[in-house]
Each structure stands twice: as C-alpha cells, then as structure tokens.
Design goal:
2 copies of one chain form a homodimer. By secondary structure, chain A is of the alpha/beta class. Chain A is 22% helix and 32% strand.
Chain lengths: 142, 142
C-alpha cells in the first residue's frame, strides 16, 4: 500500500454551511457547489471532501449510521511557518463560523499551537514548531 | 490559509497495536517506535500520526475526553489505479488485523470500492474510479 491518503472525508450535517466555512471562510479552492451533493477541495496532496454525514455513514454500511461523539478521535493539523500565524488563523476560523477550542499557546514540545472546531465540531490544530517544509508546504518527516 | 492538511492525527487505544498494523501490516514507513509515545509516518504529502486517544483529546481540552462513537464521521480514502487492487488491499488490511466493513463492489458513481477498519475502528475506503493521479500518486481534483 503506497504511503499516502488520497481523500479525507468529513461527514457534515449541513453541506451548504460547511462549504461556506471552508471555501469562503478559510479560502480553500473548489469548483464544486453544494447542489452537486459533494464538495472536493483542490488541496495540495490529500484532498479534503465534504459529504452529508448520513450518506457517508451509509456508504460504509447501515451499521455506521450512529450518533456522533463530541470527539471524533481524529484531528487535522495545519502547520504554519511563523508563530504569529497560529493566533491569526484561529481568529480567521472563528470569524468564519468556527470556534476556538484552545487559544494559541506555547506547547510542552517547544512549539506554539491552538485548536479550532469547524461548524460540525471537527477539530483542526494550527501549529508552529521546528518543522521543515517541502516546496509544496508539506512537512518533512524524519 | 493554504489549502493543505499537514497531519491527520488518529487517537488510538493501543499505540503498539496501531503501529504494527500500519507499519508491518500496511507497510507505511516510519523511523519512530511506540516507546517514543507518538508515531509519524513518512507519507507523501499529508502525514499520518498515531497518538494515544486520551492524550490527543486532552491536547485539545479536557472537554473532549469523551467516549468514542462507532463512526467518527471522518473517513480516509486510498485511491488505487486498478480495479483488482481494491479487493487485494482490503485483504491485506484484514490479514494485518483490520476488518473488512464493506467488501469490494461496484459503486453507483461508476467506480469500485470497499472499506476496511483499522484496529481502532477508523475507516479507510479503498477506491478505484475515473480519477487522474499526479506524479506523487495524489488525485488531480478538477
């Protein structure tokens, strides 16, 4: 199995609301519209996809159509190259309709990070630290 | 905000078990070991990270230390270039300790896909369809 994730699929309760948050609020590019029933963002590398929660669960099997927990168990991190970008991106997400779950702060691993949740409660960490970036902006993992 | 996800963090109940599934079972490369307390895989683009569930929740805030639901609401897709790879990868995941949640089958969008769950129940779709791949193996989203 090649070491790559093609698509991260987020099951959302309101496709229009999630679309506006990610496209208009965060600025992620896409040619899709909510009336298409599914949104693919043109990300660098792994694609982010929005799809109605019930349909995503049903696409696996009926056994997965269950209530969501407060914490999915999965977080998405967006690493930035400068420390001030952490608070700035959290503020941008909040202005877009997200919520700051953890304000920007120094971490015990020597970095600086915070968390916001999207309108469905999915968690993004915005993080700064001693990471190296490749030419696409992806982390170089040693 | 640049359109990219740096890291997908999976909160796992047994770091050693998850490490063996992804490194030994699926073949994802890493220089980390469970005794490091956190695993970063060297993926193409977005990094996959394993971290103990309770610690990941606590890293957000104590409010997120809650029981997991059967369905996280998030799926990870791994797209392949040929149809037979779907069933083959599902079998590989099952042999590694995962479970086939949906056997390989034709889809209503003209593709062919199935789902497996990892030892923590996180869902991966293995999908084949009319997608184009870039030189790194990532999907080209129109």
């Amino acid at each position: 199995m090649e070491p790559r994730v093609s698509i991260i699929g987020l099951g959302v309760s309101d496709l229009e609301r999630a679309f506006r948050f990610y496209r208009d609020g965060l600025g992620f590019p896409t040619s899709r519209r909510p009336e298409d029933g599914i949104i693919f963002f043109k990300m660098r590398g792994t694609c982010l996809c929005l799809y109605p929660y019930d349909k995503l669960a049903a696409d696996v099997s009926p056994a997965f159509i269950t209530p969501r927990a407060k914490f999915a168990g999965i977080t998405l991190a967006h690493n930035v190259r400068t420390k001030p970008e952490v608070a700035a991106l959290l503020a941008q997400a909040e202005a877009a309709g997200g919520a700051i779950e953890k304000p920007a702060q120094d971490t015990d691993w020597g970095g600086h990070s915070g968390y916001f949740s999207d309108p469905d409660g999915y968690l993004w960490e915005v993080a700064y630290g001693s990471f190296d970036f490749d030419e696409q902006g992806h982390l170089i993992i040693d």
